[in-house]
Amino acid sequence: MHQPARRRRAPRHALPSHRSRNATLAATGALAIAGAGLFGLPSVSGAQAATGPTVTQDRLGPAAMVAGRATTASLSLHSSSCFTARTVGVGVRDARGTNLDFPGNASNVQLCPSGFDFTSGARTLPTGTYTQFGFWQDLGGSWHNLPSQQLVVSRTGTPTPTPTPTPTAAPTPSATATPTATATPSAKPSPSAKPSPTATATPTPTATATPTAQPTPTTAPTTAPSPTAAPSSSPTATANPSTPAPSSPIAGKSLTWSDEFNGPINWGQRWVGDKSTAYKYGNHNPDDNKLDWLNKNNVTVANGVATFTATPGGPTLENGRQSWNTGFLTTEGSAEGFQVKTGDYAETRVKLPAGTGAWPALWTWKNGNGEVDSFEYHPDNPNLLELTNHVNPGNPDYYTDPSAVAADQWVTIGTYYGANSVDWYVNGVKVFSDGKGVGADFSAYLILNLSVSAGKYHPAPTGNTPITMAADYVRVYR
User: Using CB atoms within 10 A as the burial measure, which of 70, 131, 136, 140 is most buried?
Assistant: First the structure.
């Protein structure tokens, strides 16, 4: 078997040097659409259906949008008796059943006969006709869809939509009166935007940002404390407070592939987590100054966030070092086999790790080459991202910004794979263009992962405390 070339070069001046990025579109249940009707939606039966309250959708909007214009959705509903719904939101499906929901669901909503009004975060949609519907989740984790309507997105001006159908009462149950506060939502039969503690979505981790059609450039998002990477320190991988509506800072690009981490990782179909040709031995590569041993169990999803964990105790490596089991996502070898190509823009939002030895990255790889690092990060350089094009090598950029880049802080990072220049974006602002590009025929698989440094260029872990990083989404625009 052909052994791949060594993936990683040594970083200059002991700066971060390496890798990884992950995008998972989890399976959230089959959904078929015909005309304006939805099929394959969750049903309610048995004693629960007989005794539960009736939830009625009173108003749903918009019925029309303009392509490229960020728009919020509104939903009014009431229940025949008061109960608490874990989640309320507005779903959108295209003709193929793709999940394009409005972001910023409401959580722990008290539904009563007096009614409840919900406004989502803003998002854009390409020209076309979609199916739109309100939904709610009971405290037992089951999802319930309300009556659907047609959503028309026109190129310009104000389209004439199909009249909104009169909502019919949807008999649906409430869950048990006393839920488990830490219950993890099950995979959604009706895929929806990820739950959020607040009903509005913000385009960047900054709490004061206003949703717009594209990430709001922030020259100084929030002054981040200058963290000192304490040995064995790990960030709190909690769900981010809100999720930006899908949009690209590159004009003319539409969302073509994404994983919002709203459900379990779709292993095999969308992602592979235990092997890569970028690793000399398939699932580990000690020659590249890594302690990694790839393990699918080290990527978990909850509350719309994927958490990558590195834990000590893996098999002994060829050099005699003990490996760390660690989380890894790649599209290489999956049934979909998705690849980015020249002209694409890929973006992720991650919560950078704080643990000593952490080496997260979003990168591409194919046939022993094809590597473009959207970012590499090391907590010993807590305010620095390494941005590197290995396809047509030039000088990498060591981007430093204490206000945007810090351990245990959310940051949005994107890469435009231009034929003549690769461009990097941080929180929606272009920060570096290499003037080299990837050529006209570039294509490669995506990788999002958490590596563990072996100590040659950056410190190795000094204890046995697990290291974590979190990812909100991976999106590709074309």
Answer: 136
Please report the pLDDT score of residue 51 as a whole number.
Answer: 57
Lowest mean pLDDT among 27-41, 212-226, 314-328, 346-360: 27-41
More confident residue, 321 or 168: 321
Tokens representing 23 are 């995008």
Q: How confident is the model at residue 32, as a pLDDT?
A: 31
Dist. CA 469–CA 352, nearest whole Å: 6
Domain extents for the chain? 32-171, 198-477
What's the CA angle centered on 88, arms 84 and 91, to 5 degrees? Answer: 155
Q: What is the pLDDT of residues 395-405, one digit of tens each?
A: 899 999 999 99
Say which CATH topology domain 32-171 has: Immunoglobulin-like (2.60.40)
Q: Is the pLDDT of residue 467 over 70?
A: yes
Nearest to 460 by CA among 315, 350, 308, 310: 310
- Say which CATH topology domain 198-477 has: Jelly Rolls (2.60.120)
Q: Among 65, 67, 164, 162, which Cα is nearest to 120's? A: 65
Q: What is the pLDDT of residue 327?
A: 98
Q: What's residue 37's pLDDT?
A: 33
Spatial CA neighbour of 379 closest among 361, 400, 352, 403:
352
Q: What is the pLDDT of residue 475?
A: 97
